[in-house]
Inverse folding.
C-alpha cells in the first residue's frame, strides 16, 4: 500500500503515520525527520535545510525531491510505504507522480488529517520531541512516562525551535498557500480521504484504518 499523509503542521500526521506503518508493516518516511537527522549530523544538506526550517519556510523542491526519490528506490519500499510530510507542494506531487508512472505504479490513498488552525497552535506548543530517536509526545495529550525525558531512549525532550508560536503562524500560512492545494490535486485523482483530526488519537487511527480498508 502506498499512502500519502496530508494535513497542517501539528495535525497528527507523524503520530498516525507511525501507527499505520507498524500496522501494515511498511516504512514510515518523514521528510522532516530526514532533514532533522541531517541537521544533527551537520551534513551539507542539513545546513541548507536548517536555514529554511528555522524560518518556518519549506525547503526548496530541488533539495527535497531527489532525496525522497532515492529513499523510495530502496528495497524496503518495494511493497509500499507511508509518506509523512511529502509532497508539500504541487511540483513535489507531480514529481512523485512521474516517478511512480515511470514504474507503472500509483498511490493508493492520500489521507488528509483535518484540524482547524485554532487547535494547531495549542498542539504545537505542547509538542515535545526527542532528539535522540525522533519520538514525539504532547505534554497534555500524550505525555512521556519519564516526564521530561524520552520513554524510548531516555534523552531529554525539547520544544522544537520551529514549534514556537511565531514560527507556527508562519508555517500555517505556508501550509495554506503551498500545501493545501494538494487536497484538490488528490481529490481530482479520486484517492483523497479526509478524517477528522480533532478527535482523540485512537479514534483518528480507527478512522484512518477504515478509509484505508474501504474500497
Ligand atoms: P510537521 O510534522 O510539524 O508538519 P515536519 O517535521 O514535517 O513538520 O517538517 C518540518 C520542516 O521541515 C518543515 O517546516 C519544512 O521546513 C521542512 N520540510 C519537511 N518536509 C518538507 C517537504 N516535503 N518540502 C519542503 N520542506 C519540508
Ligand atoms: P504532525 O506530524 O502533523 O506535525 P504530530 O503527529 O507531531 O503532527 O502531532 C502534533 C502534536 O499533537 C504532538 O505533540 C502529538 O503528540 C499531538 N497529537 C497528535 N494527534 C493528536 C490528537 N488526535 N489529539 C491530541 N493531540 C494530538
Ligand atoms: Zn528518544
Amino acid at each position: 500500500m502506498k499512502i500519502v499523509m496530508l494535513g497542517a503542521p501539528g495535525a497528527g500526521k507523524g503520530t498516525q503515520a507511525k501507527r499505520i506503518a507498524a500496522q501494515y508493516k511498511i516504512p514510515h518516511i518523514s521528510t522532516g525527520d530526514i532533514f532533522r537527522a541531517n541537521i544533527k549530523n551537520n551534513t551539507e544538506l542539513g545546513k541548507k535545510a536548517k536555514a529554511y526550517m528555522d524560518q518556518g519556510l519549506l525547503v526548496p523542491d530541488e533539495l527535497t525531491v531527489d532525496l525522497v526519490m532515492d529513499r523510495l528506490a530502496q528495497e524496503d519500499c518495494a511493497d509500499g510505504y507511508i509518506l509523512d510530510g511529502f509532497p508539500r507542494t504541487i511540483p513535489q506531487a507531480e514529481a512523485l507522480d512521474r516517478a511512480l508512472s515511470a514504474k507503472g505504479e500509483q498511490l493508493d490513498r492520500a489521507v488528509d488529517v483535518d484540524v482547524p488552525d485554532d487547535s494547531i497552535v495549542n498542539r504545537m506548543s505542547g509538542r515535545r520531541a526527542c532528539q535522540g530517536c525522533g519520538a514525539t509526545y504532547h505534554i497534555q495529550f500524550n505525555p512521556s512516562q519519564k516526564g521530561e525525558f524520552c520513554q524510548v531512549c531516555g534523552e531529554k525532550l525539547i520544544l522544537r525551535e520551529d514549534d514556537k508560536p511565531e514560527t507556527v503562524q508562519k508555517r500555517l500560512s505556508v501550509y495554506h498557500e503551498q500545501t493545501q492545494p494538494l487536497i484538490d490535486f488528490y481529490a481530482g485523482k479520486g484517492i483523497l480521504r479526509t478524517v477528522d483530526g480533532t478527535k482523540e488519537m485512537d479514534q483518528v487511527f480507527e478512522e484512518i484504518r477504515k478509509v484505508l480498508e474501504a474500497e
